[in-house]
Amino acid sequence: MLRKTSVFSACVFVATLLLGFYWNQLNQTLQQRDQASLVRDLINTQVSSVERLLNLSLLSTELLAHEVRRSQGEPPDFAARAAEILRDFPSVSSLQLAPGGINLQIFPFAGNEAALGLNIFEHGSTAIATARARDEHRMTINGPLTLVQGGSAVIGRNPVYLLDASGKEHFWGFVSAVIDIDRLLSVTDLQKLATRGFQYELVRPADAGLPERVVFSSGEALNGDNVQTLDVRVPNDRWQLRMSHGLAAQGLVVGFGHFLSLFAALTLAWLVHYVLREPYRLRALVDSRTRELHELAYHDYLTGLVNRRLLNEQLGQVLREQSYAGGQVALLYLDLDDFKRINDSMGHEVGDQLLVEVANRLRGQVRGNDIVARLGGDEFAVVLLNSGGQHDLLRLAEKIVLALSRPVRLNSRDLVISTSMGITLAPHDGDSASQLLRNADLALYASKRRGKNCIEFFNIDMQREALRLMLLEEDLRHALAHRQLALAFQPIVNLEHNRVAAFEALVRWHHPEQGLLMPGHFIPAAEQSGLIVPLGYWVLRSVCQGLVARIEAQRDVVPVALNISPQQFRDKHFMIEVQAILDETGVPPELLEFEITESTLMDNLAATIDILNALKVLGIRISIDDFGTGYSSLALLKQLPVDTLKIDRCFVKDIGEDEEDRQIIQAVIAMSAQLHLEVIAEGVETQAQSDLLYAFGCRRVQGYFYGKPVIGAIPDTQPLPQPVL
Q: Is residue 302 within 8 Å of residue 355, measured between CB atoms?
């Protein structure tokens, strides 16, 4: 089709070019005809003007001849009469009387002295014409002549005959008028026409062996393609006026017209070719864009791996084939541990490069017919065809985890990542793509709950747990809206003064069907669903309202500590909500202490310090909860504006038997003293634990030994709760 388009475009080019040449030639012919018509009109006018002016000038000889005849050849006072005649005929420069053909009188004489005494019958080329005029009794005009007195002119000679006594005529001589050519030309329009591009010449054609002579001309050569000629009637002779108006650059004009025709033909042919070719180009462009859109729709733009959508389709196809052919299909879900920390600390560009390297390593660990996909963020999936048994799968999964754990060199640094993995099998765990995808996600979630770098196979208990959490999430959402939640307060005791120094607020749920639920039963569902954020703000508002109620009742008040979840701490509206609740309730901020886990504080340290500083400006105290279970260092701890460290209950539990736990606690207490931080030991359940902690320098403790959490309003601080054994 493109060849046909080119042939058609070539035909259009040739046709347009020929049409342009024809139009150009036709236009040139019409212009020449118009010019010829114009020149014909002008030459008629100018010939009439020349004839009129010549006849008018020659009338001067008639007047002078009349004087000669009247005076019988002896005109009295010739000079005076000649002067009068010249005034009436400005184109005549001088008048001459030539009795017998010899110039005897000339007016004006000055400047014409050389012509006096000249025998005009013997004067060069004019002698024959002069003799013929005498014999034929007709006026003649000669010229152009080079005058003996200098200059060039046309001379009109009028023969004069006188009657003798017998009444017979005899030749007396000539009366001549010298007509100045420049003066004659000045009273015509020819000079003006010359300025408008017309060319002309007045010539005396060749005659009797005499060559053609130019009387006057425009000075420019006539245009041979457009010359108009008209006879000028003069006495005893025939002259011709030739005129043209041919453009000197006519050939250039024609060439320019041909060039325009060529340009127009090329342009039109190109446009035709473009218009005819455009559908094919657009179709090719659409095909290309369609392929690109298909690629974007079904592949990850960064790694080039299959995306979630195509994975779903291909997994469905694989399962259909497997149902006929038999065999086992495995779906592996992978998630990079702590990828967000790398992304935040080193930038998204480094994070993208890391993802590309992970994709390349995954491709290198599986067969060519297996499917590797990126689901989004730092999540990947692998579909293994004919995967074998669970033991073989575990070995391959461990091989993949090991390959991904090798250091990645980026920005002159070696990055080491770990991977959590969830695995599900078909047809054992399900026979549809949606089932396997859901099962693999549950297995991955279970793997991440176990810790980093773990591999977990799907089992039916995971599905039951997921269903339980989903139902629990719905109930929790209802509980938040219908006041089914309550606060319980556990005392924090000052051993040195033997009194309650503060309370920790803990949330409880009065489930309408399951009864009283502890935080460990529903907090994971709240964290997974995001409900932990509004739940945290509810706890904060309730604590503030309880404190204000005690203040207004003029009852004793001690600070209350409450837990801030990682999601709530990273909520972009966290500081706004805290400030709003403080303003709404009017609680003194120094009565609040926020307990934040060690791992939460260490995530994105710069942002953490900013938030903590903002809380300190408000007057709220900060406590690091579960200290010792994370990965903070002394150097990092010094940067954090915190007030208290809470030693995790796992170190307190075996303090009486485990020397290592005792050393850890002593180190934490000593370090806190150096940093001027308070220390609270959690999980104190015996007098022996309390005594050891006091001996180590810990002055504040919390645990069942001093009181279990009590549901209701904030309790009084006196009397001190009795130890509970």
A: yes
Using 50, 70 and 90 to split pLDDT, how confident is the model at 33? confident
- Measured CA to CA, the distance from residue 587 to residue 630 in angstroms comes to 32
How many other CB atoms are found less than 10 A from the CB of residue 538? Answer: 16
* Backbone φ, ψ for residue 323 (5° rounding): -65, -30
Taking only the tens place, the pLDDT of each residue in 590-646 is 999 999 988 788 777 888 899 999 999 999 999 998 786 655 556 677 788 999 999
Burial class (CB in 10 A: 0-12, 13-18, 19+), 630: middle
Spatial distance between the Cα atoms of 558 and 560, rounded to a whole number of angstroms: 7
Amino acid (1-letter code) at residue 660: E
Which is nearest to 584 in space by CA: 540, 528, 639, 645? Answer: 540
In whole angstroms, give the CA distance from residue 681 to residue 665: 9
Contacting residues for 304 by C-beta, under 8 A, at least 6 apart = 359
The pLDDT tens digits of the residues spanning 92-104 come to 888 889 898 898 8
Residues 6+ apart with CB under 8 A from 722: none
Nearest to 101 by CA among 73, 120, 129: 120
Average pLDDT value for residue range 163-178: 86
Q: Using an 8 Å Cβ cutoff, are 628 and 651 in contact?
A: yes
Domains of the chain: which residue ranges? 2-244, 308-458, 485-708
Question: Which pTM does this prediction carry?
Answer: 0.54
Reported as a single tens digit per residue, the pLDDT across 284-309 is: 777 777 666 666 678 888 898 999 99
Please compute Rg for the chain using Cα positions: 62
- From CA 372, how far away is CA 311, in angstroms rounded? 8
Answer whether 378's CB lies under 8 Å from 418's CB.
no
Q: Per-residue pLDDT averaged across 56-70, rounded?
A: 85
Rounded Cα distance, 618 and 578, in Å: 10
- 725 pLDDT tier (thresholds 50, 70, 90): very low
Mean pLDDT calculated for residue range 16-23? 80
The lowest-confidence range among 124-133, 207-216, 506-515, 692-701 is: 207-216
Confirm if 608 and 629 have CB atoms less than 8 A apart.
Answer: no
Percentage of the chain lying above the pLDDT 70 cut: 93
Is 716 in a helix, a strand, or coil? coil
The angle subtended at Cα 73 by Cα 72 and Cα 79, nearest 5°, is 120
pLDDT at 494: 94
E strands present in 196-290: 199-204, 213-217, 227-234, 237-244
CATH no., domain 485-708: 3.20.20.450
Return the CATH architecture of domain 308-458. Answer: 2-Layer Sandwich (3.30)
| Burial of 562 from C-beta contacts in 10 A (0-12 / 13-18 / 19+) | buried
Of 188, 112, 194, give the one whose Cα is nearest residue 153. 112
Query: Average pLDDT over the chain, rounded to whole?
Result: 85
Residue 21, exposed/middle/buried by CB under 10 A (0-12, 13-18, 19+)?
A: middle
Distances from the Cα of 323 to the Cα of 38, 316, 416, 667, angstroms: 99, 11, 40, 62
Nearest by Cα to 246 from 509, 430, 36: 36
Hey, is 570 helix, strand or coil? coil
Give the CATH H-level superfamily of domain 2-244.
CHASE domain (3.30.450.350)
Among 118-122, 243-247, 417-421, the least confident range:
243-247
Tell me how far apart the alpha carbons of residues 277 and 443 are, in angstroms, rounded to a whole number.
56
